[in-house]
């Protein structure tokens, strides 16, 4: 088992891993000192590219490749996505709260590599403690000369500030986040143009997840190829997974990808509560189609998840045991998406509400057999073909995400959906 990269300091120092004293004692900011003294921005960008690190915010886009798209025009910005509102996801919270200097060191290294002098950390509004910790860490970093003008006399300057979200899930989508940061309504923008060309204040902008950037100090210290050598080739590195639901040991775990789902659920998370049988699990946040026990021996990689018609998404694994009412579980997720739809696109605004209403009718015992086809028809209008990754009729993937639980219950638990439909409503009776 590879040593942890992201959680090493917080595992060793359970009470004060967030302080600058502890960070400095454990080698913190040494990478930055060395990099500013002896590496060019291009060399850092090359290491990140060589690491094959795929973004941890959900889409899994290679970080180094994304950095290469940043338009060469000043001013440009780096924005850290700490919105973390995907149900079941709580990994960034731990990184923000318990090792904020690791993130800040990553931000300075990334900004130096990208030629950025202004960075923003957008933190979910419901995370007051992580936000306080990050702000304190920023203040400490300014005091010690790791942020501000002429950092460590390198000639490189960087200002960093924290922005708190207002409680909307959609503001985690990178372009809605940029609108929110600009003080506008948090609505996704049509792409292209992509943020790397026209982002914050219409300037070139890189948006990266908290976990993605927290990896940068290790990558620069140890070299991109060392990172790429950890785990499977196209799912390199360690990754934080948030395990929740009916497992014995819920929590965040930093693991090397490539292990099986069985290893993750039964070894890492201690198996199913009260020795019950596993029924299903959500492999990558509420937006991901579910998996079932026949998939337990599949390897946990980004590409294997795609082959199974789902995704690792935000790394949130929600485990459900045999006692779970999957129709109620699906309804709860669909209701979330209907509530969080920003309303710009008709298929999402209307369709998610339709899905919610139909599921509620079924749960009330007033469903009709044709409601199952109706659920799929409405889903098909939001995401034509019902494939995964989804085709989209919408500006952003939130609408298609609402179809994931519908696909899951109709694919794997059709009998349970039908069991809610009164016999008198079943065709031919
Ligand atoms: C509805 C929606 C919500 C999202 N929420 C988050 C989030 O909370 N945190 C995050 O990092 N990315 C989130 N994303 C993905 C971002 O749009 C973006 O891909 C990511 O921040 C890029 O960072 P990465 O390349 O480091 O993964 C969300 C996407 C969508 C469509
Ligand atoms: S898909 Fe939904 S959340 Fe996304 S832009 Fe359209 S209406 Fe808004």
Word description of this protein:
The protein is of the alpha/beta class. It has 3 domains: 8-228, NADH-ubiquinone oxidoreductase 51kDa subunit (Rossmann fold); 233-321, Ubiquitin-like (UB roll) (Roll); 326-425, de novo design (two linked rop proteins) (Up-down Bundle), CATH 1.20.1440.230. It is built from 20 helices and 8 strands. It has helices at residues 8-12, 20-25, 30-38, 41-50, 63-68, 91-98, 100-114, 128-143, 174-181, 210-214, 216-222, 224-228, 261-268, 302-307, 326-340, 346-363, 370-382, 398-401, 403-412, 414-419; strands at residues 77-82, 118-123, 159-164, 205-209, 238-245, 251-256, 278-282, 316-321. The strands form 2 sheets. The chain has a 4-stranded parallel β-sheet with strand order 3-2-1-4, sandwiched between helices. Strand 5 and strand 6 form a beta hairpin. The model has no long low-confidence stretch (mean pLDDT 96). Flavin mononucleotide (FMN) binds next to strand 4.
């Amino acid at each position: 088992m590879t040593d942890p990269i992201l959680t090493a300091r917080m595992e060793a120092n359970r009470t004060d891993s967030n302080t600058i004293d502890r960070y400095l004692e454990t080698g913190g900011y040494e990478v930055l000192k060395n990099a500013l003294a002896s590496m060019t921005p291009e060399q850092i960008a090359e290491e990140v590219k060589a690491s094959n690190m795929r973004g941890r915010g959900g889409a899994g886009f290679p970080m180094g490749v994304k950095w290469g798209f940043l338009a060469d025009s000043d001013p440009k910005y780096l924005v850290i996505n700490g919105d973390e509102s995907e149900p079941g996801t709580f990994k960034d919270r731990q990184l923000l709260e318990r090792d904020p200097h690791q993130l800040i060191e990553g931000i300075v290294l990334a900004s130096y590599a990208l030629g950025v002098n202004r960075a923003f950390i957008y933190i979910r509004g419901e995370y007051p403690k992580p936000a306080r910790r990050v702000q304190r860490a920023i203040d400490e970093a300014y005091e010690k000369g790791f942020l501000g003008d002429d950092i460590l006399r390198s000639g490189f300057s960087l200002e960093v500030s924290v922005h708190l979200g207002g409680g909307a899930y959609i503001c985690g989508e990178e372009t809605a986040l940029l609108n929110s940061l600009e003080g506008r309504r948090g609505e996704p923008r049509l792409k292209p143009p992509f943020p790397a060309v026209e982002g914050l204040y219409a300037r070139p902008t890189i948006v990266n997840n908290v976990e993605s950037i927290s990896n940068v100090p290790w990558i620069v210290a140890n070299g991109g190829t060392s990172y790429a050598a950890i785990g499977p080739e196209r799912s390199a590195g360690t990754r934080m997974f948030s395990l929740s639901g009916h497992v014995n040991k819920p929590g965040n775990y930093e693991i090397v990808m490539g292990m099986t789902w069985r290893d993750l659920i039964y070894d890492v998370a201690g198996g199913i509560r009260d020795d019950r049988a596993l029924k299903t699990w959500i492999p990558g946040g509420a937006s991901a189609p579910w998996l079932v026990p026949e998939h337990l021996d599949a390897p946990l990689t980004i590409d294997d998840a795609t082959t199974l018609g789902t995704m690792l998404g935000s790394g949130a694994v929600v485990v459900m045991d045999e006692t779970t009412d999957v129709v109620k579980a699906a309804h709860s997720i669909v209701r979330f998406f209907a509530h969080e739809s920003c309303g710009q696109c008709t298929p999402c605004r209307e369709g998610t509400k339709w899905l919610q209403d139909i599921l509620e009718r079924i749960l009330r015992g007033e469903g009709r057999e044709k409601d199952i086809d109706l659920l799929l028809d409405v889903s098909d209008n939001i995401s034509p073909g019902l494939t995964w990754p989804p085709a989209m009729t919408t500006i952003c993937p939130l609408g298609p995400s609402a179809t994931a639980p519908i696909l899951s219950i109709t694919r794997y638990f059709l009998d349970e959906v039908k069991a809610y439909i009164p016999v008198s409503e079943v065709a031919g009776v």
